[in-house]
Amino acid sequence: MSIALQVENLNTFYGKSHILQGIGLEVREGEIVALLGRNGAGKSTTLKSVCGALRPAQGAIRFRGKDIAGWPAFRAAQEGLLLVPEDRGIFGLLTVEENLRISQRKGSPWSLKDIYRMFPRLEERRRNNGGQLSGGEQQMLSIARALLNHPRLLMLDEPVEGLAPVIVDEIVNQVLEIKQRGIPILIVEQNLAVCAKIADRNYIIELGKIAYHADAVTFANDDEARDRYLGVKAD
Amino acid sequence: MTYLFQIFNGIGIGMLYFLLAVGLSVIFGLLQFVNFAHGAFYLLGAYFTYDLVERGYSFWVAMPLAAIMVMALAALTEIVLLRRIYKLPHTFHILVTVGLALIIQEMTIIVWGPLGGNVPPPEGLNGVIIVGDFIYPEYRLFVIAFTAVLAVGLWWVLEGTRIGAIVRAGSESSENTALLGYNTLRINSAVFGLGAGLAGLAGALAAPIRGVEPFMGLEALGIAFVVVVIGGMGSYTGALLAGILVGVTQSVMASLWPEGARLMIYLGMALVIVAMPRGLLGRA
Amino acid sequence: MSIHNEALKRSGHSSGKHAPAPHPVALETSELTVAYGSFLAVRGVSLSVRRNSIHSIIGPNGAGKTTLFHALTGRVRPSAGSIRLDDKDISHTRDDDRVRLGIARSFQVTSLFPNLSVQENLRLASQGRTPWQALAPWRSINHNKEAMATAGEVMERLSLTQVAGRAAGELSHGQQRRLEVGMALAARPRVILMDEPTSGMGVDDIEAMKELIRSLAADHTVIFVEHNMGIVMNISDTVTVMRAGQKLVEGTPAEIRDDPEVRRAYLGNMITGDIA
Amino acid sequence: MKTINNPIFHFFLAALTVVCLPLFLRSGVLASEILIFGLAVAACNLLLGFTGLLSFGQGIFFGVGSYVAGILLTRYQIPVPLMLLLSVVLGALIAVAVGWLSIRRQGVYFVMLTLAFSQFFFFLAYSFSGLTGGDNGILDVPRPVIAGFDFTNLWSYYWFVAVIFLAVFALMLRTTQSTFGRTLSAIRENEARASAVGFPVRAFKIAAFAISGAVTALAGALHAMLIGVAPLSSIEYHTSEIILIMTIIGGSGNLFASLLGAGTYMLLADVLSTIWPRWLLLLGVALIVVALFMQRGLWGLIETLVSHITATSKRTPNAATERPLHRQADGGKA
Amino acid sequence: ASEAITVGIPVPISGPFAANGKFASLGGILAAEEASREFGRQVKTLDLDTEGKPATAVRKVQDAFDNNGIKLYAGGILSSESLAMGKEALRRNGVFITTAGADEITGTDCNAATFRWSVPTYGAIEQTVRPLVDMLPDAKRWYTITPQYVFGDGLLNVAKDIFKEKGIEHVGNSYHSLTEKEFSGYLTNAIAARPDVLLILNFGSQSSDTLRQAVSFGLKNRMTILVAWASGLEQFEALGPDICEGVYFGAQYWHGVDTPGNQALVKSVRERFDLTPNYSLAGSYILTKLLVDAAVKAGSIDGDKVAAELRGKTYEGLTGEETIRAQDNQVIKDYYLLKGKAKKDMADKDDFAEIVSQGKSFLSPEDAGCKMG
Ligand SMILES: Nc1ncnc2c1ncn2[C@@H]1O[C@H](COP(=O)(O)OP(=O)(O)OP(=O)(O)O)[C@@H](O)[C@H]1O
Ligand SMILES: Nc1ncnc2c1ncn2[C@@H]1O[C@H](COP(=O)(O)OP(=O)(O)OP(=O)(O)O)[C@@H](O)[C@H]1O
Ligand SMILES: CC(C)C[C@H](N)C(=O)O
Ligand SMILES: [Mg+2]
Ligand SMILES: [Mg+2]
């Protein structure tokens, strides 16, 4: 399998605090990679640094053969490296449909029709303002926007955070469907059950460094690692 | 009856005020940037029109051309200068744009001299309309109609088109707009150009009414601030409402208590901010 | 289990020491509601915090924990409900007045005076109890001996003495977090609220913070928000779980850990270990 | 680096300036005006640099002081010291009113509000011409003769101004070094925290306004006596703008910087305006240069130079004085 | 040759009145050059930029006293700066002579050191409104637009007296502030009052704005328009002949005045600067000339000596014979009523108007309120 995204020695600061201290990871074509870690470990910071929303101080980022380190976020996005951010980044004063329309890019395998088929709820609410959506609906909208934007790699930051279980199921299914379409995904997720269901490989970040790395099967059986890095007690 | 005329006349003044202020408002909404050079762009719009008309171009060529020239100049200024200071505190926005306004004003004097000039209303619009006791210049009528069409058009662009949606998205969060693949830097330049271009257009339209003189920019800035603050910064309809409100107040006060007109307008502005933090229609 | 017992032991000990306190309840809310526009960030939360207990509040992001703190300290106005401090209704008291009544807080997002020295930060925090004195432009900053002394004590307690003269903005993240807690301590409050005191701290700092919070209960009532379950489960007397602005459940750490609802809403499936 | 930020050193610098101005300037008016605007700018700095309030309304207080001098000295023969006291009191009162209304808003809205008030007071002064002389202003404002000392001569008046200047400058230095001053700095740095720590932030801001208004009015009164007129232009928006520009050019958050800003601006304007009628163009360029390259003003420039020369202790980050203003910027975004 | 004479020209060189300052500066230079030649001694001018602000004006004058030893000042475009500078001249034993508008300069605020060349409001109205009333016996309804301050009120009150005397109906007045730029509201009022004559009593760019907007409202075809206090040539240039045609203007000076003094001036200005003199230039020229002549004659530049020389002097000026009235230092000279020409009737590019009438009207010094101490 060829490598879609390769990150080496990524270092990022917020002011003077050194948040990412040499992160390295890779995402291969067609797979879902999960990034785990406690609150504040630096997961979101990693995703933002990769896509250019934050400017890393150091590090190499290769995306589909291009060195994109230091690129501004919009150029990375034009290359198809799309982040669905933690806060979902919905434009609250734009309607759902406007949110979708401004995301539409030529050549995307998804059309507005596809989106409305995937997320019928969005079609029902397409005249509503983004700010009026529930958390789950906003999450759908945010993913939908990324799909319309012709993604070549999708980075999802806690996509099921704070969502009701049914919606979690729905989103998990959609994520798997996106994978079926051949889009690799880098996902940050606290919910181990979700990870286990979708991830092919797992990285764990601790204090800004990759502390652990394993494929799904190994990780599932590594009670100690989960206890140590995520504070998950195996009863 | 006079009051009816005054109200109508006030709407006419107000439409120009709206045009003058809406650019300032749009710029503020998108860039969180207070532009003290807005009046200077108005000044340039008027002088470009004046210059072109003096050179023998028809007003109908001069007016749009002047607005486009101002737009281009403003966008260039944004790229060269202003984008470096967005992140600085307001103090420096004020400093830089006040400086810019001074430069433009003095350049105007150097190029066109300290005396003002006159721009005749375009052929065919230099008469008056008479309705009973009421007289109204055709050109002013044209300005009302033109601005109204422009207001609707602008509203449609901002609210109804994809480009408008992108601009509005950018004013909510430029970070998230960038995540969708938009070059927010370029959007900023374009919007600044648009906003300043609207001021230039207002200047171009005002030239046949007001004539041109090097200090008309200062006066325009004052009015634009009042309108934007009353209407709510960043609000499109707010600018329209407040522009008309200020225009009508001014016109009606001309009959009621003319010497207090300005006092009332500034008092009103202070009251509005104290009572309604965001202006009449400003959003949080 | 053993940790939990220890916590119970300790809390029993401390409440024993202060048994004759007039009000067993230090801080109480009833049906507290906070609206941001039309959105209710906190909805009808009734909370009762025992004097000198350690009361933690947990819940998913956006549950309204910080907002609840804002309401308790007066930073936001509740739209309904009431807050009582030692049986005094403070629902409509301004935030700075509440400091005088004995509530102080630390912030989730570090909020210091970055260009002032550590000592000056703490002195100001301490002076905040007698703010009107500070209105006198002729008084020198060394005038308030008491405030200076408090600042010194707090620095000692948080091992910040070595950096007393450094600007707060130049401290390391961990030190800033400690100073953040110190700002609350310097006001010598009876009730101290800490919003995620350990967020952004290194492992050893976290351990120290845990001990600090534990020791605070000797003479303060402590309410804190934390995502670090190690601390929450170890030192809390009571845990309140919030979700979507509402109080989900409340109980001892042990009860909370075993509550199925909490596992689903906050602790998640992962804690059960039933990985599919 | 330590000494150059020491208040006593600043007072020494101010005193040195006061003594040296007569040696270097031939013009007693210019020298007096530098000190007078030095006061007004220091007062503006108290708001901008120490409290984080960008006030576009300083001209109101300047004008008020100037009118107090004009009205009391020409119509009521009130002794000058009493007149100065009254101008201080009235300046403080009006500043409390303006401050009380303005601080309800933050960021750009605060700026706009002070701007609106400045226009409002201008038109007030303009409309009540019976009191203010309208466009003509109040003429024949005399310079003082106090206890046998005749200050009507320009240079002797300079020393009159100088004594008041140094006294007020010392008081203001003391103020900035006091608990009060530090609390203002705390408010500028982090208003939310200052409030959370227990300070009634609004009361402090209003107090800062009162002091600022009092000192600015004093400057206005001194100015009216200097030029013998209380003109309408003193209360104009333009006066507010100039005071603000001088403040930023000098450097905010440091009182001696204010004297530096006032002096530099006045001297520069004096020189430029005689060599080129279009000197405002150069001023415009200068403002842009300051914003782009000298964000901490002239004082910041001096600090940087000194620290380069001594190169001992490590440099304070450049962002130091910008930060509080950033916060104000954020206030506008809310 | 004896020592050099320097005349200060305190005028707004920057700011909104910069245009006036620019021409005033030229007028001073010309007068100084001529005097140098005539008296064989060095005569110079020094421009002092007042920025149009009284405070700056006084500061510049004080400086010029101290640093340049200048005691003679010819300038002051705005009333406020002129009043303030006149006071300063008195304090310092200098002489100040001005063309500014406010009556107080030689009225209630007159002083021994302050002279004025321009005709006060009384004469401006007497020499414009009265002749026009006589010329248009059927025009019985007059409407006025007045700036709200002493100058405007001065003009208005004189006009009202004439209205009363002549049985004219004053059908309305609109006051406006000195910063007003938009006059359509006032014009709407005026139209509703159906006047025969619209009397515009503001000055400078405000009168241009008012007139321009009045013309665009078609008022020229419905009534006679009189701008009582026009600034002269530069105003015609800014407005253009189309607007000015058929409109009456009151003026302190017009380059078409047929006097030897004026013809000489027009000639030398054309030669020296390739310009036609306007009010600012001509005014500054005559002010400077008066000062220098008096100083040479007095053999001193001390204020009291020069002032004594000026007081009571009669000379052949730009407007014909002019006299400096001793009691209030007011120059007694003609004021002009002009009428705008059609473009096709203009002999050259500056021939905007014809002189309809001219004459001298002045209040007595007592009536003007001048008590010189
Ligand atoms: N804007 C910011 N300024 C300063 N520090 C920040 C900022 N954003 C995040 N941090 C700090 O960076 C660290 C990493 O944050 P990050 O958001 O990447 O964590 P995370 O792993 O995504 O956590 P979570 O699970 O809570 O989302 C934290 O310590 C946080 O406090
Ligand atoms: N100023 C505000 N205006 C509008 N909504 C707000 C505001 N502040 C917070 N909210 C919303 O209120 C809800 C509760 O926020 P709060 O900060 O109290 O959560 P929290 O429980 O502290 O979360 P976390 O664990 O992430 O700190 C969130 O949905 C948040 O988006
Ligand atoms: C036309 C001008 C001579 C009038 C003068 N500027 C004044 O202020 O009154
Ligand atoms: Mg995160
Ligand atoms: Mg929180």
Please provide a written account of the structure:
- The complex is a heteropentamer of chains A (235), B (284), C (276), D (334) and E (373).
- Chain A is of the alpha/beta class and 235 residues long.
- Chain A contains 10 helices and 10 strands.
- Chain A starts with a strand and ends in a 5-residue tail after the last helix.
- Chain C has 2 domains: 151 residues, Rossmann fold (3-Layer(aba) Sandwich), CATH 3.40.50.300; 77 residues, no CATH class.
- In chain C, the strands form 2 sheets. A 6-stranded mixed beta sheet of chain C has the order 6-7-8-3-9-10, with helices on both faces.
- In chain C, α7 links the parallel β7 and β8.
- The longest helix of chain C has 16 residues.
- Chain C is globular.
- Chain E is globular.
- The model of chain E has no long low-confidence stretch (mean pLDDT 91).
- The chains are: A alpha/beta (235), B mainly alpha (284), C alpha/beta (276), D mainly alpha (334), E alpha/beta (373).
- Chains in contact: A-B, A-C, B-D, B-E, C-D, D-E.
- At the B-D interface, α4, α9 and α11 of B face α5, α11, α13 and α15 of D.
- The structure holds adenosine-5'-triphosphate (2 copies), leucine and magnesium ion (2 copies).
Helix count from the secondary structure assignment of chain D: 15
CATH topology description of chain D: ABC transporter involved in vitamin B12 uptake, BtuC
In whole angstroms, the N-to-C terminal distance of chain A is: 37 Å
- Percent of residues of chain D in beta strands? under 5%
Greatest interface and its residue counts? Answer: B-D, 42 and 45 residues
Global outline of chain D: globular
- Describe the main β-sheet of chain D briefly: 2 strands, antiparallel
Query: What is the domain tally of chain D?
Result: 1
Membrane topology (chain B): Multi-pass membrane protein
Protein name (chain B): Branched-chain amino acid transport system permease protein
Subcellular location (chain B): Cell membrane
Keywords (chain B): Amino-acid transport, Cell membrane, Membrane, Transmembrane, Transmembrane helix, Transport
